[in-house]
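Researcher: Quick sanity check before group meeting.
Model: Go ahead. Protein one:
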Amino acid sequence: MLNYLFFSVLSFAVIIISVNKAIDYFSFVTIEKKMMEQADLYELSFREILAKNDRSTGEGQVSDVPRSALERLKASGKEVRIYDSNQKLLGLAVNGIIINDGTPLIFKGNIENALKGNYAYTVTDNKLLYFAVPIQDKYYQNIYVFEFVEDLSYFYVIMDQIRYILFAGAVGFLVLITLVSLFIARNTTKPIKYLLGATEKFSKQQFQQVQLNRKDELGMLAAGLNQMGIQLNDYIQHQKQFVSNVSHELKTPLAAIRGFSQYLYEGENEDKDLQKIYFHLVNESDRLTLLINELLMLSRFDKAGPEEIGKEKTDLSELTDRVVAELRSKAENKGITLEVKPGKKAFVYINQILMTHAIANILDNAIKYSNADTRIRIEMFIRQKEAVIQISDQGIGINEDEIALVQERFYRAKNSNVAKGSGLGLSMCKEIVEKFNGYLAIESKIDVGTTVSIILPLS
């Protein structure tokens, strides 16, 4: 929008400057044409005097040509001058009065050009036009120069008035076009922003009805988005219901499998190979039990509305310290040092149980995917109006093209086989944080480490 206004103003400024130059040029062309027409009349009068002088000379009479010409043409301009072929001033009249001993301002260039047979003029700073006209005798010799002076101040006053009207109109037009542009932009961008907001909510699985009372392309797009949102919501709800039902159905037989596997493992004391098989069955049963419990938790979390989650004002710094204290022994058993940078109190509205699970899951991932004798840094700080928990490890890292994918359900990074996991932990953390109007930020490099930040709005 600003770029459009800038280029509009720039284009209009170029047009105004061009029009202003054109006014100056064509105005002077008009004045020049008018002066030349006057010069032709003055030249004709002067030549009549020359012809009369020739007749008087033939009859034996003596005539003063410059004096006669000055008498006839003394009122032709603000000033009137007559020069001979040697550029000598022969006569001068000011405001119609003949001056015998005057020392006027003389432009020799004008006189020289006129003696060559050309019209010549000069405009001074005080808006006076000096126009020189060559006068020829019957042999077409330039024997005199007739110069008249015109006051052009009236012309500049008219030009200033025209410019004032032009610039006033330009300013008015710019104000009008700015207001119209803002009006059009607002009416155009407002529905677009509304649709962008709807798509952003769709990406967060917040499916609300898209209503845009328009019959143009934007209205058709809104209707299409609305239909897509309904279908996506139905699909996701069916998918979640299916996962929930399957998880519930699997929980009972899996408990039986786990129980029998544990019984067989504890009862087998003779065949070591068979004992290893039973032990593997117990471990896999535990892993599947953990996966199903996570799926059931996700199912309950998906179905819970904002009012069912139970938010309360909580000091995030204190909550983070409690989670670190619970997992410190697990880190030390692996030879990993947890470095905690104490932060200021930061109060947010959250569900303590869910947020504890999210922080613990991220810290547990950092421990699982870090090598022995490394450090994990946990930092809590306030940035503008947000509370931030940063957990940075020196682990295996994540490929840049997988950072967005690892936040999706069931996705595991290509190098994640160094530790067991279901691919649900990080996605669950993301959904928990987003329930409280926050978001996750992940930065990572392979074999350097990963930094996961939980960002939540302050209460």
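Researcher: Fine. The other one?
Model: Protein two, sequence then structure:
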Amino acid sequence: MADTDLAGAYFDAASTEPLHPAARAALLGALDGAWADPARLYGAARAARMQLDQARARVAAVLGARADEVAFTTSGTQAVHLALLGGARARRRTGRHLVVSAVEHSSVLHAASLHERDGGEVTVVGVDRGGRVDPAEFAAALRPDTALACLQSANHEVGTVQPVGEVAQACRAAGVPLLVDAAQTAGRADVPEGWSFLAASAHKWGGPPGVGVLVIRKGTRWRSPLPEDEREGRRVPGFENVPGAVAAAAALEAYRAEMATEGPRLSALVERVRERVPRDIPDVQVVGDPVRRLPHLVTFSCLYVEGEALLTELDRLGFAVSSGSSCTADTLRPSHVLEAMGVITHGNVRVSLPRGVRSADVDRLLAVLPDAVARLRRDAGVSPA
């Protein structure tokens, strides 16, 4: 990577993209010039308000929204929670039924569980073995009492792109607002039209952590699930992080512009991984849709290997990757995404390439991976079939 000291060994961009140079420059400038309270009337405050409004307009332009539809949050998770719980609350007279896919991010599923514990009802729509929702099945789950539907733009663990456009048409026909969690695609690709709510997270596109984006289309009913606050159009409580918003907007513009050329390059590198890993390592399953996928992400599962052990071994060799199947001490459960897909849920590795990653470093990973897997299998006393 040309602008970091990570030597190309960082392959966990789906978790967080390294800070974009445009974000760093904007953040440093805003820390000096946009630190004042944007709600006040004196000069420094007006300057901060101007920079906040400009950041809002820049983000809106990239996301295909109006500036007054955009609010900055403290994270993508907060944006999801506000959209889901606020959208459902505003439509209580219609009903208390939600529709979500089985592979949504945990922020969506946790908010849906809270809604359910509060007396609501949730229908979970399954996916195929590629991790993709069937639009017809999703449409069939909509009911007259459905308050809100939720569908991610692309999956965070396996990279499968969801049929948002088709689902949005079905929701529009049923009069149901659609929440799209666009955390993995904002800045990488445009989200199809038809959604009512959109949530995104700045650190996924090289912006600073601690900045999320909530977009609520004009005319969409929404009522805050939190105590009322004067900030961010009464949508997000708390003091605005103006420098963070300015940096997030700068990164989003720069990142989106780069993806026209960087996206196809990353996709070719991912295709190399998809081809080489099952060819060079026995008993490996590459998961996710092979065609309708994010350009930078590939996930594969290795039989007879614990995912955590493989991640640790690759870290020792200088590669930062992640796993969607890790059974943590807190949950003792494998990935809900892989379970819903009906694929192998252990020995799982997610490789997600950041902007600027070097082709040679991907090849270096592919060179050491077969021996690493073989060594762990031998240590476990297991041989592939």
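Researcher: One line on it for the slide.
Model: Residues 242-280 form the longest helix (39 residues).
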